[in-house]
Amino acid sequence: MSVRTASNPLLITPSTVMPPGLTVLILSLLLGLQPITTDLYLPTLPALTEGFGAAMSQAQLTLTALLLAFGLSQLIWGPLSDRFGRRPILLIGLAAYVLASIASTLSPTMGLLIFWRTVQGAAMGAGVMCARAIVRDLYTPVQGARVMSKGLSGLGVIACLSAPLGGLLSDLFSWRIALLALAIFGALCLAVVALRFIETVPPENRRALHPADLARSWLNILSHPTFWAFSALSTASYGGLFTFLASSSFVFIKVLGVGKTPYGLLMCSTALAYISGTFLCRRLLTRYGVKRTVAIAGGLSLTAGTLMGALALAGYHQPWAIMLPIYLFMLGHGIHQPCGQSGAVGPFPQAAGAASALNGFLMMAAAFAMGGWLGTHMDGTVYPLTFGIWFWSVLIALAAWTLVQKTGENR
């Protein structure tokens, strides 16, 4: 497999490339840090809140603070990984993730739990940011979208297992044991990277950390319309997903009366829809290219959001009225994320870490803003969830049908 191109002659040579299967496995584990960190403890949120005697807004902060730290940390991890390589950043970040996970498990107060979840989010940023940058290190933008979709299929499997496992561990033991599972997963990722990962940034391709060089890199990325088009797509799509993640446990368990373990199974089913979307993404990319693939997925997203909002307005406040549209939304999400994340980083082979960091930051900034809104608008009804997803579905369609169509990225 040759991954060297005329436009990027400094990509690593075939002799130093990891086997494709190992690359996808590492991508799946690193990208999977995000869903397991957020999804596994979602079924425990109501019990965690009651256990500490805390307000719902504080419980939401254990998620939104984590995601804000996740987004901000990538702005640091990205340039560092461009300068020193992906491997040392991954080892430092994953080690910190394991320690923060253990500390979260042992937290005696909600304040300390929020603090350690914030540290956990910052550490998680190293793994997820490097995963997106590794794809650009090794592949051209369109090849990267296909490979990213494989890694995100692995992420989907992890997401599918996370919520049911969290609900089961919470039912059998306690929410603390569910949090301890994150430390175990982090240790597994650390071991795989330490033992099998081969550096993807050669020494001659590492950028200096001089402020002027960094400023030029940021300016180049932020002034590029392709970056903004695909970042808008991935950010809006993640905003919709986060709205569901942050509010669904309270809506399903507290409002609709679904048990923790059944709720976990529902979350698993949404991950299966997402996995199906990543498989569909690869088929559509081969047949139609990036632009038409994204446009088709934009129709799926808008249909899902509109249907969910309309059913809520019509008075259908049952689990099925949320789950059927969310399956369609997740199908589109499985297309938007690999195309959006790889498309945003594609124009910047020499600064893939920085571009990945900015793309990740924008997604987490949107999630943090939405989390803050949900923390003050959860009113014991389904409306914050359903209307929130409807809102993001409109933005997804606008990005897919306008901004992405104006870029030069297609095949």
What do these coordinates show?
The chain has 411 residues and is an all-alpha fold. The protein is built from 13 helices and no strands. The chain has helices spanning 20-39, 45-52, 56-84, 86-105, 110-138, 141-172, 175-196, 211-222, 225-255, 260-313, 319-345, 352-377, 383-403. It is globular and about 55 Å long. It starts with 19 loop residues before the first helix and ends in an 8-residue tail after the last helix. Mean pLDDT is 86; it is low at 1-15.
Mean pLDDT: 86
Main beta-sheet strand count, sense and barrel state? none
Low-confidence stretches: 1-15
Please trace the helix and strand order, writing H or E for each element. HHHHHHHHHHHHH
Q: Proportion of β residues? A: under 5%
> DSSP helix count?
13
What share of residues is helical? Answer: over 70%
Mass-distribution shape: globular
What is the number of E strands?
0
Radius of gyration: 20 Å
Query: What structural category do the secondary elements indicate?
Result: mainly alpha
N-to-C span: 19 Å
Characteristic terms for this protein:
single chain; 411 residues; mainly alpha; 13 helices; 0% strand; globular; disordered N terminus
